[in-house]
TrEMBL record:
<dbReference type="InterPro" id="IPR015943">
    <property type="entry name" value="WD40/YVTN_repeat-like_dom_sf"/>
</dbReference>
<feature type="compositionally biased region" description="Acidic residues">
    <location>
        <begin position="33"/>
        <end position="48"/>
    </location>
</feature>
<dbReference type="InterPro" id="IPR028598">
    <property type="entry name" value="BOP1/Erb1"/>
</dbReference>
<keyword id="KW-0690">Ribosome biogenesis</keyword>
<comment type="function">
    <text>Component of the PeBoW complex, which is required for maturation of 28S and 5.8S ribosomal RNAs and formation of the 60S ribosome.</text>
</comment>
<dbReference type="GO" id="GO:0043021">
    <property type="term" value="F:ribonucleoprotein complex binding"/>
</dbReference>
<feature type="domain" description="BOP1 N-terminal">
    <location>
        <begin position="107"/>
        <end position="365"/>
    </location>
</feature>
<dbReference type="InterPro" id="IPR001680">
    <property type="entry name" value="WD40_rpt"/>
</dbReference>
<dbReference type="Pfam" id="PF00400">
    <property type="entry name" value="WD40"/>
</dbReference>
<keyword id="KW-0539">Nucleus</keyword>
<comment type="subunit">
    <text>Component of the PeBoW complex, composed of BOP1, PES1 and WDR12. The complex is held together by BOP1, which interacts with PES1 via its N-terminal domain and with WDR12 via a high-affinity interaction between the seven-bladed beta-propeller domains of the 2 proteins. The NOP7 complex associates with the 66S pre-ribosome. The PeBoW complex associates with DDX27, BOP1 interacts directly with DDX27.</text>
</comment>
<feature type="repeat" description="WD">
    <location>
        <begin position="372"/>
        <end position="413"/>
    </location>
</feature>
<feature type="repeat" description="WD">
    <location>
        <begin position="677"/>
        <end position="709"/>
    </location>
</feature>
<feature type="region of interest" description="Disordered">
    <location>
        <begin position="1"/>
        <end position="94"/>
    </location>
</feature>
<dbReference type="GO" id="GO:0000466">
    <property type="term" value="P:maturation of 5.8S rRNA from tricistronic rRNA transcript (SSU-rRNA, 5.8S rRNA, LSU-rRNA)"/>
</dbReference>
<dbReference type="InterPro" id="IPR012953">
    <property type="entry name" value="BOP1_N_dom"/>
</dbReference>
<keyword id="KW-0853">WD repeat</keyword>
Length: 709
């Protein structure tokens, strides 16, 4: 068992070979059990010979066995015992736990406690002793008190006298080094005598005469915290308990009286004549009153008892509702609010926002100037020419009338034979064309008003388009007008097969969008006038479309359904924004000339303003009308917008949009214009602004068109 400590002299090849590393690591940690060996050992000093391969060694209980170096004559001398690891620098015999800085609680459920340098597990020692065995060891072993357990390896270690003394010094609060003197005399490194030359001639630092910015910031923070009340001075705590009756004292000098929000206990009502044992005769109820009292609910009775009369106080019986009334009184005290809510005294005038005066926001329409009469039925739609000289209107009487704005004279009447639901004048001043939606078709009319060269150039533009031999499959059919229809002013007819509810032009005048009253993805169609081509921009439907509008400056198409407004990018063919107006049913839509704001009218009497750069939720909701809104419109030049409602009024508002993105739009209602007569519970059906003047046109159910200037 000791052959690993020295070479074997009987090796076959005669070389001094040693055991393998694995075998050597196995025997490196063995400890002597303390028992006497049965082998024969020889002493080399007195000349006795030893057997072949035997060694002479000295055993000591409790220490590891160490073999001495062999002699060539197979005789060894007895040497004093030395530490095996004193001069050994090999790492194979290091059994220290190399688990690292890992909580040992992770190994509680495992049989090992870590790993050595070879990566092998270091198993925990078997501990089968119970508390009784530990007690016996404590009684038998005199060194039990200085034995501790190594948590890294699980073995028991015996502290030396130096280690015990170190622990005792640390427990007493002393220094660990016994030779350290904390009370050494102070050494005067510098002389107390005043010297001519300074100790150091280094110039003063710049920070010594410049205030510290860091300290200044800290002081400013503390000052701000003191001003805000975040830092409070420490006050001595009053340790005496403070007990008081909640409803006892009502004196203002008492504890409860000093509370600002204290509510006194509710007082009991004083008894009246009806509660007397001998009340006056007028307080005694009759039989009818008794019957009525019994049939009433307890909350409806004037008194919760019936007055009775007794001859003497001795004849008064015990009160039957005594316990119930005491219980109700306790409930009153228990459920009474302990704190009074401070009522904020606010002047109602302060709640009104400080808006500029309307006369400072002029010009805007203030009175009715002209009335355009001629339609025999309600006028659903109207549109103003780009120059502002002519006005087109569509009515349920099946006609489209063209008016002169300045004189209110009807210049031309075109009978289309159906209800005109929408009309739009081409915004391009170089094209004289009007689009009218009638039943399932869109009629393109040349009003033949104004400059004759402009009228003829418009006809030449329409006639110059060549129809392909094999027309492509389109969702709409383009039909040329007949000879009689051309005399009436009709040039083209775009048939859809489904009712058309709205028609609107693009700002350049070449494209127009229509809304069809049918379910599916073909509710919105876009027509190109120069190529006579129609297309459906959407593949699926997101609800019933109410209104559409082109963005004035960017390739956006705004589609308003019943509950939302979607903004689509036509070039990218994607959804850009989805606006939620928080309305039950959107009825109308208008885009600001700058393109960053839109307004929506709804049938639940709301006008919603959206700031596209701010949020997808409404910037402001106006509820000035009492009935459903039918139309909204922006002025092309002035900061004005108007709304028409079924209450017969047109409300003009000042809507200033600033170039500064940090400043919100200013919305001020300036005028309520009335003049239309309610017909069949319908009022104003459409509104439109003059392109250059601060005038507004309105068409109503009474068959008239009114100009307010």
């Amino acid at each position: 068992s000791y052959s690993h400590a020295f070479p074997n002299p009987l090796h076959s090849d005669g070389s001094n070979s040693v055991l393998s590393d694995s075998e050597e690591s196995v025997f490196s940690g063995l400890e002597d059990s303390g028992s006497d060996s049965s082998e024969d050992y020889s002493e080399g000093e007195d000349g006795t010979s030893c057997d072949k391969g035997s060694v002479v060694m000295e055993e000591t209980s409790g220490e590891q066995v160490k073999a001495g170096p062999p002699c060539p004559t197979m005789e060894v001398t007895v040497t004093p015992r030395r530490d095996e690891y004193e001069e050994d620098s090999s790492d194979e015999e290091d059994i220290r736990n190399t688990v690292g800085n890992v909580p040992l609680a992770w190994y509680d459920d495992f049989p090992h406690v870590g790993y050595d340098l070879d990566g092998k597990r270091i198993y925990k020692p078997l501990r089968t002793r119970d508390e009784l065995d530990q007690f016996l060891d404590k009684m038998d072993d005199p060194d039990f008190w200085r034995t501790v357990q190594d948590r890294m390896t699980g073995h028991d270690l015996r502290l030396t006298d130096e280690q015990v003394a170190l622990v005792q010094r640390l427990q007493k609060g002393q220094f660990g080094d016994v030779n350290f003197n904390p009370y050494e005399p102070a050494v005067d490194f510098f002389s107390s005598d005043i010297m001519i030359h300074p100790v150091t001639n280094r110039p003063a630092d710049k920070r010594s005469f410049i205030p510290s910015l860091v300290e200044k910031e800290k002081v400013s923070r503390m000052v701000h915290a003191i001003k805000m009340g975040w830092i409070q001075p420490r006050r001595p705590r009053d340790t005496t308990p403070n007990f008081y009756d909640l409803w006892a004292q009502e004196d203002p000098n008492a504890v409860l009286g000093r509370h600002k929000m204290h509510v006194p206990a509710p007082k009991l009502a004083l008894p009246g004549h009806a509660e007397s044992y001998n009340p006056p005769p007028e307080y005694l109820p009759s039989e009818e009153e008794r019957l009525t009292w019994t049939q009433q609910e307890p909350s409806e009775r004037k008194h919760n008892f019936l007055p009775q009369k007794f001859l003497s106080l001795r004849a008064v019986p015990a009160y039957g509702r005594f316990i119930q009334e005491r219980f109700e009184r306790c409930l009153d005290l228990y459920l009474c609010p302990r704190q009074r809510k401070m009522r904020v005294n606010v002047d109602p005038e302060d709640l009104i926002p400080k808006l500029p005066r309307p006369r400072d926001l002029q010009p805007f329409p203030v009175c009715q100037a002209l009335v355009y009469r001629g339609h025999s039925d309600l006028v659903r739609c109207l549109s103003v020419s780009p120059g502002g000289q002519w006005l087109a209107s569509g009515s349920d009487d099946g006609s489209v009338r063209l008016w002169e704005v300045a004189t209110a004279r009807c210049m031309r009447t075109v009978h289309v034979g159906g209800v005109v639901k929408s009309i739009a004048w081409n915004p391009n001043s170089a094209i004289c064309l009007v689009a009218a939606a009638m039943d399932d078709a869109v009629l393109l009319l040349n009003p033949a008003l104004g400059d004759r060269l402009l009228v003829s150039s418009t006809d030449q533009l329409l006639d110059a388009v060549t129809t392909p031999v094999e027309p492509a499959l389109q969702p709409a059919r383009w039909l040329e007008a007949s000879g009689e229809e051309r005399l009436e002013g009709l040039r083209l007819r775009i048939c859809h097969g489904k009712p058309v509810t709205q028609v609107t032009w693009h700002g350049r005048g070449d494209y127009l969008a229509v809304v069809l009253a049918s379910p599916g993805h073909t509710q919105v169609l876009i027509h190109q006038l120069s190529r006579r081509r129609s297309q459906s921009p959407f593949r699926r439907s997101h609800g019933q479309v109410q209104r559409v509008a082109f963005h004035p400056t960017r390739p956006f198409l705004l589609v308003a359904s019943q509950r939302s407004v979607r903004v689509y990018h036509l070039l990218r063919q994607e959804l850009t924004k989805k606006l939620m107006p928080n309305c039950k049913w959107v009825s109308s839509l208008a885009v600001h000339p700058a393109g960053d704001n839109i307004i929506c009218g709804s049938y639940d009497s709301k006008l919603v303003w959206f700031d596209l750069d701010l949020s997808t939720k409404p910037y402001k909701v106006l509820r000035h009308h009492k009935k459903a809104l039918r139309a909204v419109a922006f002025h092309p030049r002035y900061p004005l917008f108007a709304s028409g409602s079924d209450d017969g009024s047109v409300i003009v508002c000042h809507g200033m949009v600033y170039n500064d993105l940090l400043q919100n739009p200013l919305l001020v209602p300036v005028k309520v214009l009335k003049g239309h007569v309610l017909t069949r519970e319908l009022g104003v059906l459409d509104v439109a602004f003059h392109p250059t003047q601060p005038w507004v046109f309105s068409s109503g159910a009474d068959g008239t068109i009114r100009l307010f200037s």
